Every structure is written in C-alpha cells, then in structure tokens.
Amino acid sequence: MGNPEFAVPSLKCLVQSDYDVTAVMTNPPKQMGRGNKERRSSIDAQASELNIPVIHAGLLDAPALINQLKKLTPELFVIVAYRILPKILLEIPSIGSVNLHGSLLPAYRGAAPIQRAIMNGDKMTGLTTFLLKPSVDTGDILHQKIVKIQPDDTYGILSEKMSLIGSDLLLKTIKNFLEKKIIPMVQDNSIATTAPKIQSAERIINWKDNAVNIANRIRGLNPKPVAHTTLESKWLKIFHASTENGTHKSAPATVIERTKTKLLVQTGEGGLSILSLQREGKNQMDIQEFLRGTSIKEGDRLGT
User: Fold this and answer.
1) Sheet architecture: strand order including 141-148
2) Are 136 and 175 in the same domain?
3) Residue 49 belongs to what domain range?
4) N or C: which end of the chain has fewer CB within 10 A?
C-alpha cells in the first residue's frame, strides 16, 4: 500500500524477493491539468508495469474494499507512504501490518518527515519499520537505520536516497519479523515530535528570518512544493540558494549585490545568494540566465 515515488523501490524490492505480492493498493487516479488528463500515483504506474493487480481505494472502511481485501487472504500488509489504516483493515492480514517511515521514530511522526528534517537544519535523520496501529506512526518499532543529511541535500535528493535504503531495510524487517527474530520496541511518546503536511503559508519566504533558516527551507521544499517569494507582484519560486555572512544596513528582502552572475539578498541575519529560480509562467533557470533577462538592481526588494 502506497502512493508516491518514495514507495516504488520498496515495491520493486518485494517483487524481486521470494515473497508473493498479491496486489497493490493506492489512491484512485486524479483528473489533472487543462486537458483533464488522468494522473495515477507513482506506485500505481509501477504496479501496472509489473503486472500486479491494483486496488484503487477511496474510503478505507468501505464494505466493498474490505471484502475485496479479505478475498485475497493476505498474510501481511506492507505500507510505505500511504494513509492511516482503520482498525477494521488492520484486522485482515493473518500476521500483521508493517510500515516503512522516513524518520527515526518517535521523531517526526506525520506526512512530511524528510522535508521537516531538512527545513529544521538537522544533520541526521533515518528510517523506521514498525507494526501499524490505527494512529499516526505510533506502532512498535522493528528496525531503524540512521541516514546522514548532506549539506547540499534537497528533499528530492534525500528522499530518493532514503527510498533505496528503506527498501532494503523493509525486506530485512519482513524476513526477521516472519522468522520471529525481532523483539518489537514500544515508542516513547514523551519524546515524540510531529511532521505535518506542508501548508501553503510555509512556502512563502520570510525575509526577516536568518539566511541559514531560509536556505534550509528552500532545500526542504525542493522540488515540491517549492519555496517562493514575489518580484514585482509576481511569484518567484526559488530552488537553490547559498548563505553568506556579513553585516549590511539594508532591510530584509533588499538586493544588496547584483552582478552578471550573482543576486545577493539581505535577510534578517546574513545574505542569501539565489542560485536557481523560476519566474511566474516561465521555466526553471539558473541565476545567470535570470539576470540576463531582468532589470533587477541593487536596492530593489523581493516579497513585494
């Protein structure tokens, strides 16, 4: 059971193993864009390629869905980046339900653990496999693996890296769990932290914040949903940036250095050098290309 690209390596790993993947459950396709084209989840597309039956689940407690799953007589549910399963579903598999999560639980319970770790400037994160309960990421821990966050890691880079590491961890977990070689460990709820879904307001850059925090936010929201500001009342998405120390008297959001290859913006503390961005209605471009096509100058302000 899963939806995004993060779940794809785990599915591939399971298919290549000795286990029998009887079906994949995912969200129904959505109608997207001007042409109202059907957009399937990443795990849906991959399952179709592998000729695995796909179950498009709407309401998770719908009687028809419950009956469909019961007919499969599954021994194990394997969940990677999916939804909270109700108790009535968790009672179906004869052995249990194992979940792969992108953090070292009980840290970062929720929908956006990898993004939140980068946005918070963490140097380390990890992966956890655990037994599922009908609540957010609270089940007993089976295995964990630490993953280092590199200074240049974006959400996209780190997520891909962790999805591959996680697929191996998941396979190891299933083997050891079925062979009863794991003693599940209860999570310490007193030290739990949350990682809720990114809200629209969190995408907007607060130039009064310091440069390091802004750069981490940009990394954590790249490639989606992307941090942004405004320029001349139009959205400006920022994908990459670096920080520069130094004291300036300019107000936050002010352009303090503009050359043919550099755009340095004052923050609440330190400067932020923008490296790649996307103007409203345009394609993503590096800063040199952007500066060739704009009249932005020192003293101009972003966010207005």
Assistant:
1) 76-80, 96-101, 124-131, 141-148
2) yes
3) 5-191
4) C
Structure tokens at 229: 């500001």
Residue 242 sits in a domain of what CATH number? 3.10.25.10
Do both 240 and 151 map to the same domain? no
In a domain, 104, yes or no: yes
Q: Give pLDDT, residue 16.
A: 97
pLDDT, tens digit (0-9, with 9 covering 90-100), for 36-54? 788 999 999 999 999 999 9
Q: Which residue has the tokens 């629209």?
A: 200
pLDDT in tens, 212-268: 999 999 999 999 999 999 999 999 999 999 999 887 889 999 999 999 999 999 999
Burial of 5 (0-12, 13-18, 19+ CB in 10 A): middle
pTM of the complete model beyond 0.85: yes
Assign residue 43 the CATH number of its domain: 3.40.50.170
Count of the separate structural domains present in the chain: 2
Is 262 in the same domain as 136?
no
Q: Are 218 and 164 found together in one domain?
A: no
Average pLDDT over residues 69-91: 97
Q: Quick one: pLDDT at residue 146? A: 98
Question: Does residue 73 sit within a domain?
Answer: yes
**170 and 206 housed in the same domain:** no
> Contact 46/202 with Cβ under 8 angstroms?
no
